[in-house]
Amino acid sequence: MRVIDGRYMASPGGYLADVRAHDIMLDIGAGDSFADIYTDKRFAYIMATKAIPILAGTPLVLSPQTIGPFSRQPHAGMAAWACRKAKMVFARDPLSMDVLRKLAPTANARQVIDVAFALPFDRPVRPAGDPIRVGLNVSGLLMSGGYSGGSNDYGLGFDYPAMTRALITAFTAMPGVVLSLVPHVNAPDMPRDDDGAACDALKREFPQVERTPDFASPSAAKSTIAGLDFLVGARMHATIAAYSAGIPVVPISYSRKFEGLYGGLRYPWVVNAKGMDTKAAVAFVLDAFERRVQVAADIARGKPVIDAGLEDYTAALEAQFTAAAR
């Protein structure tokens, strides 16, 4: 596995050579990074991974991901060019598909679903009499306020650190409930984005909570989450892990990628980025916990949409691979 850094991207024997050695490229854009809400440096990397195969003549497929938002230039123009030049573009939610239609109306585009719903896992065996296990997936990014060092880069309607502490206080006061802090993004080289560092700080503040060890792989993360009774999560793929394992989950949104994905599944148990203040967000999560049987039923209702999206993506990929092999 290659580490994508500036030296690798700039070297003629690096990314360009690897692109030319392949018959087709699949670019998933880190799931949500094909947007201009992050740093310009991150956008430059995301665009370079797309532009190099296009210019090298290697067929490019944009795998299921969030498209946008793009609110400024030249970001929007560059993104539109990449979408038009790609062999196919897969949006993972209805809002992204709407953005794509406006951004690049001639792109060969299709709406499917996030591939993480298909991630394999092993469900832990729970002993008889085990307590109710609640997971709190803590986002290092949101605990830091964002990448810039501001207190609220994403303009959230709620105070995420205050909400996190309020939920820890509430869950640890419940008899028969064990609360675990669950990191999902391990980024020791980027302290503001590192869930593990944020969990460690909260563990020092609240020594009565458990702290789940850092995960060695995505499947290991999903397998652990599948052993919970309830999850509150601010990382998209931690919440997808819970949802696709049938675990009642409340996603905490900081961008429209949450509303887009879960809106497409008609899943109502999302703390919207700008729709609630801190007090309302905490009350919403605790109500979902009390009604977790209903939450689980709402998850089951989305399965046909997920199955259809995964099947559609697999079939389209098979066609692209056949064409690339000719």
UniProtKB/TrEMBL annotation:
Task: Give the highest taxon in the source lineage.
Answer: Bacteria
| InterPro entries per UniProt | Polysacch_pyruvyl_Trfase (IPR007345)
According to the record, the segments passing through the membrane are none
Q: Which UniProt keywords apply?
A: Transferase
Q: Name one GO molecular function term.
A: transferase activity
Pfam families recorded for this chain? Answer: PS_pyruv_trans
Polysaccharide pyruvyl transferase domain mapped to chain residues: 28-255
UniProt-recorded name of the protein: Polysaccharide pyruvyl transferase family protein
| The organism of origin for this protein | Sandarakinorhabdus fusca
